[in-house]
Amino acid sequence: MSSVIPIQQVDLVGQPIVNYRDVLSGKEIAAIEHECSLYESRPAAAIDALQIVQSERRWISDESLYAIADMLGMSATELEGVATFYNLIYRHPVGEHVIHLCNSISCWLHDYQTITEHLSKTLNIEFGQTTKDGKITLLPNVCLGCCDKAPALMLDGELVENLDIKSIDSLLQGLRGGKNA
């Protein structure tokens, strides 16, 4: 899944213990330290720390997870629970752009299936996959909270509402630098 983890030792359950300074960049460490200063306990900054590292690396590798856990003074298992609970923390590599297609009941009632089929066919991928050029990852999302503007998706953290085939094609063309998807 990731590069070789610089293991110094393992904990009681066999998880690697790493020194975060061997894995995280100075920029990441400084940003995480700032977030930790805003909370009463270091583990409370777990989501922020995961987001900081992900913003630099696009996903959280095992190596990064162990390093963040070390820095926050928590177990890797505890941090893994946080990371896998939130669908905006990626534990596998993703493309340069990530599309979260809302699959709530409102979106289903407003042509979700047609949008899904068009995205899959146009990108030549299914949910959970990334295009061969590494540009776009397509993921489902339980609800984006914009049911009054369904169907909707989130692209790189920005909501796109009232989707139709034309708006999807325009969006994909923009992602591909004006080239046909």
TrEMBL record:
InterPro entries: NuoE-like (IPR002023), NuoE_dom (IPR042128), NuoE_N (IPR041921), Thioredoxin-like_sf (IPR036249)
Gene Ontology molecular function, alphabetical: 2 iron, 2 sulfur cluster binding; metal ion binding; NADH dehydrogenase activity
Pfam families on file: 2Fe-2S_thioredx
Keyword Zinc-finger: no
Entry cofactors: [2Fe-2S] cluster
Manner of cofactor binding, per the entry note: Binds 1 [2Fe-2S] cluster.
Binding site for [2Fe-2S] cluster: C102, C107, C143, C147
Keyword terms of this UniProt record: 2Fe-2S, Iron, Iron-sulfur, Metal-binding, Oxidoreductase
Family, similarity comment: Belongs to the complex I 24 kDa subunit family.
Name by which UniProt lists this protein: NADH-quinone oxidoreductase subunit E
Natural source organism: Paraglaciecola arctica BSs20135
